[in-house]
Automatic annotation (TrEMBL):
<comment type="similarity">
    <text>Belongs to the EMP24/GP25L family.</text>
</comment>
<dbReference type="GO" id="GO:0016020">
    <property type="term" value="C:membrane"/>
</dbReference>
<keyword id="KW-0472">Membrane</keyword>
<feature type="transmembrane region" description="Helical">
    <location>
        <begin position="168"/>
        <end position="188"/>
    </location>
</feature>
<keyword id="KW-0812">Transmembrane</keyword>
<feature type="domain" description="GOLD">
    <location>
        <begin position="28"/>
        <end position="110"/>
    </location>
</feature>
<protein>
    <recommendedName>
        <fullName>GOLD domain-containing protein</fullName>
    </recommendedName>
</protein>
<keyword id="KW-0732">Signal</keyword>
<dbReference type="Pfam" id="PF01105">
    <property type="entry name" value="EMP24_GP25L"/>
</dbReference>
<feature type="signal peptide">
    <location>
        <begin position="1"/>
        <end position="18"/>
    </location>
</feature>
<dbReference type="InterPro" id="IPR015720">
    <property type="entry name" value="Emp24-like"/>
</dbReference>
<dbReference type="InterPro" id="IPR009038">
    <property type="entry name" value="GOLD_dom"/>
</dbReference>
<keyword id="KW-1133">Transmembrane helix</keyword>
Length: 200
């Protein structure tokens, strides 16, 4: 339970504050987010610092099969959004072509956090607290979907384990039967051998 709370707090920190990191000169640095198929994701990045007029930082977002989802070159600020086409890890990579180290702030959202609720807010005249409750409801729905998917995987793994255990059991029975048969054959063979030599 404590680990779940810590994970939730880390997720809230990530969603609320984003991530700030440095990319050295001529280096590339990547972060990734694991997403399910058909999940919406949005991102916003900013190259921090005073000397950002001549920024040479490229960004590239790739999917789990290596396909390019988004790319932008030499921009100090940018936004992107996409819907995941496959289950797996989506990489966000920054390549620094400058001769100085660059600090980058990345704010990445996925699932309920990435959904734009502005139309619903204007249509239904929702208050900020109602908007947050709506986001929490969407997040709970996403978590429920993920739990159902994990349960399905657990059932598949249990079926595979039962199949393997059954095969191992039958293989063990077969091995014992073969060893017993060889033992009986050896005893009979030796008995016939000694009888032929008139030793018994």
């Amino acid at each position: 339970t404590m680990m779940l709370v810590l994970l939730l707090l880390c997720c809230m920190f990530w969603c609320g504050h984003g991530l700030t990191f440095e990319v050295g000169s001529t280096e590339e640095r990547c972060v990734f987010d694991t997403m399910r198929k058909d999940v919406l994701a949005t991102g916003e990045y900013t190259v921090l610092g005073q000397d950002t007029a001549q920024v040479s930082v490229d960004i590239q977002v790739t999917g789990p099969t290596g396909e390019e989802v988004f790319a932008q070159q030499k921009k100090e600020h940018g936004k992107f959004g996409f819907t995941a086409q496959h289950d797996g890890d989506y990489n966000v990579c920054f390549k620094n072509h400058d001769m100085v180290t660059r600090r980058i702030h990345l704010h990445l959202k996925s699932g309920a956090e990435a959904k734009d609720l502005s139309e619903i807010v204007q249509r239904d005249h929702l208050k900020p607290l109602s908007v947050e409750l709506l986001r929490i409801k969407e997040t709970i729905a996403d978590i429920g979907l993920e739990l159902r998917k994990l349960q399905s995987r657990e059932r598949e793994m249990r079926d595979i384990n039962e199949t393997i255990n059954s095969r191992v059991t039958w293989f063990s029975i077969f091995s014992v039967a073969v060893v017993a048969s060889l033992g009986v054959w050896q005893v009979l063979h030796l008995k016939n051998y000694f009888a032929a030599k008139k030793l018994i």
